Amino acid sequence: MSYSRSPRNARKSGGGRPPRFEDNEDTIALLESVGPVVLPPEIESFDELDLSPVMRLAIAKAGFTKPSPIQAALIPYALAGTDVIGQARTGTGKTAAFSIPILEQLDSLEECRDPQAIIVVPTRELADQVAGEAARLAYGVPTEIAILSGGKNMNRQLRQLENGVQVVVGTPGRIHDHLQRGTLRLDKTWCVVLDEADRMLDIGFRPQIERIMRKCPRNRQTLLLSATLPPVVRRLAESYMSEPVVIDCCRNEMAVDTIEQRYFTVANDRKVELLEQLLEREDPEQAIIFCRTKRGTDRLHRQLSRTYHGACGCIHGDLQQRERDRVLQSLRDRKLKLLIATDVVGRGIDITTISHIVNFDVPQDCDDYVHRVGRTGRMGRDGVAYTFVVPGEGEVLTSIEQRINKELVRDSIEGFDPVPEVTAAAEAASAAEEEAPTEARRSLNPMTRKKKRRR
Ligand code: AMP
């Protein structure tokens, strides 16, 4: 069976931009300064999008019936060749949102042996996941996808590039490596995706990203996905994107509604004990427990392994790539019930059976909180997130609440009375907020700063 996907040239001549979706609320000045802001349209089925029969079959095979908001909004723009900034968290279906239009427009390997699309992601785990999802959606059409990420066999990557690839998924460091060696050519690349752009810039990949962008043809399409749009991301967009539209999928949902978010106050030396009791009370299907440091992650892993033996794994940046892959596969296969992780590696995990998140250590910043908590409640499933707050961390709790525009619910377990210092700090902060609630929220959360709609 051979369906031809809409050829790439159809993209150029195709009917122009899809209509702009009306925003009936005040527009957000911040987003508008980057480009026109659109909100996701209500679409009930993939049939309402202009997709080829083979793609519809692949989507059905993947078990997707209704497009998620980012998919409903991004796919028509991407198919029309427009540059898009999608403000969307992980877990919202953003991978399929950019993969579907790319796959729809790929020329065959016979027609072009150099990469036509390049997807740049912050971590190796995310590269594997994105490539896996793209391969799944390429069902029915032979498609060469190469993963170019660090920690993976270089020779294999070189062989694959030599044999010809249509799509590259990789981390900025390794992609940049290949460009320097002259083993990767981007002059046929018509689409660049910067996935989790905020995180890539956080990690310090800006120089590599810029060099990659400069190696791509000027008339390419750029799709940028980011949970947040801080100034560094906006500057990147201004420098390397052409008249982008901004899709706002984060309005009113900095952390998904289906996730119950709770906190415990606890003395530092009783955290492990509290965690053990919490796990006993909750009996999670699968849980990820986030720690701040690699050593802390190892230590907690040793402690929990006494009770959970083979059902408890651990993952952090010091582990070999092979070991990280093995642990994640065990989690996917449900051999593991508990995974102890640090932020950088934990954030790419996309497993729908994660029912619980525990922030054993409070996250370093509020964005990390949003990303950690987003590991559960994937695609609208229920999830619970618990945060352990020790004395002196009350303010962190408050700024998390301001970031997500939602109060965390205090939880307790018998024998673990609320720790007074924490509670006092949190209450003082919330009392201050009560006096000027909206002002405090607005100044701290740039996403809620509004201005009057321009006509
Ligand atoms: P992502 O945000 O790309 O990490 O996707 C999160 C999860 O949702 C992945 O496991 C996807 O396979 C799944 N997914 C993506 N789109 C849909 C959809 N329209 N319906 C159901 N599941 C989806």
From TrEMBL:
Keywords: ATP-binding, Helicase, Hydrolase, Nucleotide-binding
Chain residue ranges for the region called Disordered: 1-24, 423-455
Residue ranges of domain DEAD-box RNA helicase Q in the record: 44-72
Helicase C-terminal domain location: 274-427
Motif Q motif mapped to chain: 44-72
GO molecular function: helicase activity
One Pfam family from the record: Helicase_C
Extent of the signal sequence: none
Top-rank taxon: Bacteria
All copies of domain Helicase ATP-binding, residue ranges: 75-247
Protein name stated in the entry: DEAD/DEAH box helicase
Organism: Aporhodopirellula aestuarii
